[in-house]
Design a protein that fits this description.
Growth Hormone, Chain: A; mainly alpha; 438 residues
């Protein structure tokens, strides 16, 4: 049984602040990646693991964290995740070696796993049904705004203060979030059996929704990983200018996510998922026109199409997962949504990295530098174009799979789908972006 919070809107404020902390951290890292690589002298493999250590640890810890949130208390788990994230961020800021950075990013992933599933579960426990949709919209919007503003803020911080400050700012935000949570939020836990991951995956629509989320992130974050390297290494843009290039894409995701929610609420999740994934595929194909002189306005239409498709597809797929899950497994369902994003992102970076490496001529003396955009720009662009094509094909497969989604989403809790699922969790999304940036 859950307990209604005395101050649900303050609970929303606390949960939103925690999500914004992780969201800003992730998009800022996207911009900081090349600087981090130079600072610690990381190879391409080490860069991938600096990014993926967070994602792998997060994916492994999400289900235990979701179960712990349901059984031990959502507030307690959320607080542990928030404070842990802040402390580990402080340690990362003082790191000077790639291997230690990889270990600490893994620890940060565990903290993120504790924070994320508990956040959505706290909102479901705090708000009555008639206000839950509004609360979820505000929560998702706040986190999405942090993603949109992250590239510019992160670029400014990196250029003027250095990449460690990107992490240092997390500690005061974590302390404020924890204090607000303690003051305003009641503990929430379930007295029912929470079930198992296997039983959750057997719930109609849940497994397919998770697959669609994973495929979307596979392509999106794999692309962003190499796009950041292109901007800062091939084009020699400073962090702020690189952030400006990424802003249209992230901003459109913010704007399109509510549209995806509205479309899903009216028509069901099938066609928004199919249409959104199709738009992503078209946008990815457009990025194959990239060359050494491409201007921001040339890519703008493809960025807008890709961003719009991402927001629409992810909200539909997220609603499929969360809205179909029984209320007593809300923490576990939130964990599944996050696992799908992490696994999709990790596979995207690793797989598209292999595609990029396969395009490097066998006689190249510095293949590692070539894949980071530090060698012949033509070699890097050949790999980028091949990666974009593979990503587009993967998303197209997702669009075909989405045709199997039921026309309407039923919920075990009795709430409409649009009320139970907020926009895609920017906090986790952003983390994926960071890894590829490396």
């Amino acid at each position: 049984m859950t307990h209604i919070s005395r101050s649900p809107w303050w609970t929303l404020a606390a949960v939103s602040l925690g999500g914004m902390m992780v969201g800003l951290d992730g998009t800022a890292l996207t911009i900081a990646g090349p600087d981090i690589a130079h600072s610690v002298g990381a190879s391409m493999t080490e860069l991938q693991w600096i990014a993926n250590a967070y994602l792998v640890a997060l994916a492994l810890a999400l289900f235990p964290a979701g179960r712990a949130a349901d059984r031990l208390g959502r507030r307690a788990v959320f607080l542990t995740g928030v404070l842990g994230f802040g402390v580990v961020s402080l340690l990362i800021a003082s790191t000077t070696t790639s291997w230690l950075l990889i270990l600490l990013r893994g620890a940060q992933g565990v903290c993120g796993a504790m924070l994320q599933p508990a956040a959505l579960a706290l909102l479901r426990a705090a708000f009555p049904r008639e206000k839950l949709d509004l609360a979820l919209g505000i929560w998702g919007g706040a986190a999405a705004v942090s993603i949109a503003g992250g590239p510019i803020l992160g670029g400014t911080i990196v250029e003027h203060h250095g990449w460690p400050v990107v992490f240092l700012i997390n500690l005061p935000i974590a302390v404020i979030t924890a204090g607000l949570t303690l003051w305003a939020t009641r503990e929430s836990k379930t007295t029912k059996r929470t079930g198992t991951v296997r039983s959750l995956l057997r719930t109609p629509g849940v497994s397919l929704g998770a697959v669609l989320i994973g495929l979307s992130y596979f392509s999106l974050f794999g692309l962003l990983f190499f796009l950041t390297l292109y901007l800062q290494n091939v084009r020699a843009f400073n962090p702020v200018r690189a952030g400006e290039w990424l802003l249209p894409l992230t901003a459109v995701i913010v704007l399109s996510a509510p549209i995806g929610g509205a479309l899903t609420g009216r028509f069901g999740p099938r066609w928004p998922a199919v249409g959104g994934l199709a738009l992503i595929s078209v946008g990815l194909i457009g990025f194959r026109t990239l060359d050494t002189t491409t201007g921001a306005y040339t890519l703008l239409p493809f960025s807008l199409v890709l961003g719009a498709g991402t927001g629409i597809a992810l909200i539909a797929a997220t609603q499929i997962v969360v809205a179909n899950a029984p209320e007593e497994t809300s923490g576990l369902a939130s964990a599944l949504q996050q696992v799908a994003t992490q696994v999709g992102g990790v596979l995207g970076i690793l797989t598209l990295g292999l595609v990029m490496s396969s395009q490097v001529p066998s006689g190249t003396t510095d293949s590692d530098g070539a894949t980071q955009g530090l060698g012949d720009p033509g070699v890097f662009l050949d790999g980028f174009h091949a990666s974009a094509l593979v990503a587009a094909v993967v998303v197209a497969v997702g669009a075909v799979l989405a045709l199997r989604v039921s026309g309407r989403t039923s919920t075990s809790s009795g709430l409409p789908a649009a009320q139970l699922a907020g926009p895609p969790d920017p906090a986790a999304d952003v983390q994926r972006e960071s890894r590829y940036q490396q």
